[in-house]
Amino acid sequence: MSYKTCPDWPELMELAPDLQFKHYTVAEAQLPADALSQISHVSLSEVEICCDLEHHVFNAEHTDAQVCEGLRASHWYDVREWATSGPGTSSNAA
């Protein structure tokens, strides 16, 4: 797998300190089929996603718009949703 740490990691650590965001191709990330069905304009090996794969959280600022829409319709969270109204709110309250 060829991945790299997101260059915005300091900002993301403030927003969601328990997550580690990395950049992957969509093919590497092995996203759910319902999310992949939204992608029609490029090859899955060419489009990138910025995410924490373990927690199913993506950074929309560094992720293709069609991928974001597909993920929002699945069990994945946008990092801002994770930190403000999702599972990440309990870790920020401490």
The percent range for strand residues is: 15-25%
Q: What is the makeup of the main sheet?
A: 5 strands, mixed
What's the end-to-end separation, in Å? 34 Å
The secondary structure category is alpha+beta
Percent range for helical residues?
25-40%
Oligomeric form of this entry? single chain
Radius of gyration: 13 Å
Total helical elements: 6
Spatial order of the strands forming the largest sheet: 1-2-3-4-5
What is the approximate shape?
globular
* Low-pLDDT stretches: none
Please state the average pLDDT score: 88
Query: What is the H/E string?
Result: EHEHHEEHEHH
Count of β-strands: 5
Description:
- The structure is a single chain.
- This protein has six helices and five strands, in the order E-H-E-H-H-E-E-H-E-H-H.
- It is of the alpha+beta class and 94 residues long.
- The longest helix has 8 residues, at 65-72.
- The N and C termini lie far apart (34 Å).
